[in-house]
Amino acid sequence: MKILVVCSDFPYPADHGGRVDTWGRIKVLSELGWNIHLVVCGKQIPSEEEIKVVFQYVNKVKLCERRSRLVDLLHAFPMQVKSRSELKHVNIDEDYDYVLLEGDYVYPILKNPLIKQGNVILRVHNDEAIYFSALARSTKNMIHKLYYHMESRKFMRLQKKVLEQVDKYLFISNKEFEDFQRQNPSAKSIFLPPPVRKETFLSNNFQDKHKHIVFIGSLFMPNNREAIEWYLEYVHPLLLQEKDYKFIVAGNSRKQSLSWMQAYDLRNVVVYDTPESLDDIYKDGYLFVNPMQNGAGVKLKTIEAIQNGLPVVSTSTGYEGTGLVPNKHIMIADSPETFYQRIKELLHQPARAQELLEASQQFIRSHYDHKEVLKGYIDSLNPNAQMKQVL
Fold first, then answer.
1. What stretch(es) of the chain map to CATH 3.40.50.2000?
2. Matching Pfam families, A to Z (predicted)?
3. Which CATH architecture has domain 199-367?
């Protein structure tokens, strides 16, 4: 079986949510015995070392140039899509059993005359119309706000076009899957959870830990910035009275200034800008917070924190689409005072923190079997061609 995977960003290194999901799926497809060809249309040119790592799982890689122009703001397609128009002209010189689109951004590949429409599968990382609307609410920059609103409306129109051409969907968010299924019952859609490596779940010794509260996320994204600012303004001051408390912030800034944090009390705040590894940050953490106010899709940061041994206190937005159950797997709070109380409860009750972590890890082990769900889905589309797993 041969598959063409089309990406809007080079999938390795897996240093943010979209890459984590795509890279994990590529490795799963390789384990299932697929011959994988990769087409990427993104801004960043991967290094030789990064390409070398990808070739451990992929048989062929084609890169095409992403071209962003201001005039594209006037186009009917979203700029994120229009800038990848080169995909229409990529030389697809082989036949594939399936073509997997990693998100709406790579829609132009469907205009490529060498692509067979009937075998296209779309991985839905976010409902992009909702996602860009959420970004518009998060940013304080009026130019960015206008741009996000425009992209949101354009994605609404694009989604209707995609529906005319694609009937196979893999949703990362259980909530977005259920909403889509109600509206489009004839589509071959499933909830495909993000790939989670079961052997890498980490434990935590809460009795001996400093009270390090961790947030990890892309620091250049306005919705993550909004989350950090909300926490620093409303929750952080309440926790400064706690002995050994620190707020640890880590993520890729893409070399953008983090001076916006200077408006807040940064006592006991430690920032790791674009760290090479997150392992020690997770290891030294007591719990993870996801105070997101706006967003769409599954917040992979929540799943990754649990996998790395941290129980989670989150807003309703921060756990949406995960399937986790409040108070059983995760603590949920939307007001600053309640958010503080949930954190304080776990800081002062190590046994409760341990209970929450173990329950959430067990839920993910049981429900996030990416390989089996993906294999079952492909088998259901083509029951005569069963995939042979590579041991």
1. 2-195+369-381, 199-367
2. Glyco_trans_1_4
3. 3-Layer(aba) Sandwich (3.40)
